[in-house]
Protein 1
Amino acid sequence: MRKGIALTLLLLLVSVFAVADIATSVDLAQEIANTANEQIESLIEVAVEKSEKFTVLYTERGMSQNAYETLIDNLGNELASKALRISQDAIARIEELGCKAICYYVPVKLGYKVFLIDPILIIDD
C-alpha cells in the first residue's frame, strides 16, 4: 500500500514539474517571438520614415523617377531581408524549445510600392 501511494506521489510530482517546464518553454518562446517582432517593427518604422523622406525628395525637389524607384526598392528589399533573418533566427530558437512558430506576412507600403514583411506567430498545438 505504501509503495502504491509513494509511486502515485512520485508520478504526481514528476507531472507537475513537466507541466511547469512546458509552461516555461512556451513563455520563453513567446518572449523570443515578441522580441523579434519588436525588432522588426522598429525596422519598419525606420524604413517608413526613410521612404517618406525619399518621397519628399522625389515630389518636391525633382529627384528622377528612376533614382526614386531604386531607393525605394533597395530600402524595401533591405527591410525584407533583415526581417527575414530576424524571423528565421527566432523561429530556430523557438523550435529548440520544442515549440512551433511561423512567419505571417504584413504589407508595408514604402513610397510607391508594397513589401511583405514577416513577423512571427507562435502556434499552439
Note: The chain has a mean pLDDT of 86.
Protein 2
Amino acid sequence: MYRYPVEVVSDMYLSKVGGFSYELGKREIGINAKALEVNTSIIPNETFATLRTFDDRRPYFFKQRFVVVAVEENMDCYKMTANGEVVLPDEIRDRMDVKVGEDVIVNTVESFRVDGDYSNVARAMLWHLESRIRRN
C-alpha cells in the first residue's frame, strides 16, 4: 500500500526525502502516519532515528538524532509524504546536504537496542581493545 519506508535490516528503513516543512521542529522528522503503522515498528513521538545518505561518511555517533513524528492528513506537509517519504524540518535545509527525492536510511536501531544505556557499548569497545592488546 505504501511504498516507503522499507525495512532493509531490523529497525533500519530505506526511504526518500519528500521535502522540507515548517511544521516540524529542528529535532523532528515526519513520516506518513499510516505508512509508519503498516510498514514499520516505529512508535511516533517516542522513537529516535538518525538519517544517512549513501554518500555520508560521518561516524554514527556524530550524526544528528531526530524524533520520528507521524504526519497526519490534516497537516500541510502530508502531500510530501503521501507514499511514506521522510519530511525534514525547514530549519536544517542549509545544514544537511540532502536533496528532495534522494534516498536516505532511517536508522532506529539505537532507539530500540541501546535505548540510552551505553554501558554495554562501552564494555564491548573495552573488551575489543583489551583483546587487541593481548594479541600484540
Note: Helices lie at 33-39, 109-114, 119-135.
Protein 3
Amino acid sequence: MVVREVGSSARTFALGIADALDPSLVPDTHPRLVRVRTGAAGEPVGPVVELGKLLGRDPERLWAEWRKRLGEAGPSHG
C-alpha cells in the first residue's frame, strides 16, 4: 500500500498491511485516511493497521475529513 504524507515536505512510503487487518478490506486506488505504525520520530514505518472509509476522488473531501479528525484528536499529553 502506498501512503503519502501531507504538507509541504510530504513524502511517499510503500508500506505493508498488518496481518490482523480484515482481508476483505482490499486496498484500492481511492484516497483513504489510514493508521500506520510509526517510528520514534513519528515517521511511518508500517504496517498499515487501519483503513478509513473511501473518500472518493475529491481532494476537498479528503482535506475536510483530515481537518475533522485533527479537531477530534484534541491536544496530546505525553
Note: The first strand starts at residue 2 and ends at 4.
Protein 4
Amino acid sequence: MSLYKSRSISRLFPLVIMVSLISTSLLADQIQKPDASQKAAIDKMHHKLHIDQAPFKVQEVQALKELNEMTILDGVKLEKVNVKIDELMAAKTQIMRLRYEHLIEMRAILSDVQKVPYDKNVLKRSAVK
C-alpha cells in the first residue's frame, strides 16, 4: 500500500470511532414508548455522556494523529511508538468505560417490556461485522 493510501486510511479512523460512539445514542431512539420522565432522563444522560467523553475523544484523536505521524519518520524508536499506543488505548479505555456505564444507566430506567428490545439491540452491536 502506498504512503498516500495509508495516510488516507488513517484519516478515516477518527470518523469510524465517532460513528461507533454515536451508535450509543441510536439505542435511545429504539426504546419503545418512553414516557416524559424517561425522555428527560435520557436527554440528561446523553448530554452528560458527551460532556464526559469529550476530553478523551480529543486525546484519542490527537494520540492517533501523533502515532501515524511517528510511524512515517525515519529512525523512530519502537519504545516511543509503544508509549503513544498506550496513550491512545488509555483514551479509548476511558471512552469505553463511560459508554458502558451509560448503557447500564440507560437500562436501569427502562421497564421490563422496554428492556427486551433494548437488550437485543445492545447484543446486536457485539456481532462481528
Note: The first helix runs from residue 3 to 29.
